[in-house]
Amino acid sequence: MRVLGVDPGLTRCGIGVVEGVPGRPPVLVAVGVVRTPPDAGIGERLVLLEQGIEAWLEAQQPEAVAVERVFSQHNVRTVMGTAQASAVAITAAARRGLPVALHTPSEVKAAITGSGRADKEQVATMVTRVLRLAAAPTPADASDALALAICHLWRGPAQARLAAALGGRR
Question: Which of 50, 68, 107, 144 is catalytic?
């Protein structure tokens, strides 16, 4: 399965693509960041972000998209930008008929490091090890996007089976 992970952000939106099957280590396909100018208007930034994500979807042809679930932070402005970037990624994937999964930061950290309270450096270190890379992807947004994709690769099928078994009851 090929998964595109998105660490949403208005200025830097991390994108990472991994491929794998259960029982085998995932493989890095591509990683990068979609950037928008901080001095541009919100509309222009969202259009640029959509164009960047669409280009990644077209080039990488993922089978699923994993996006970081926006959670409440102390800085409302940061939350709003993250939520807007997240919505752009979800919409772009849905337009293509791709399944979208939302994973919380603590869920991703637990999947990658074994601790839901791991810091960014620990996540980057484990992404580097899991994907057998020579160095951690930079910036941190890129590494976080790969962590999201790996988390979904490892947890997504089980979550889908659980949801099907519950018949939508949650």
Answer: 68
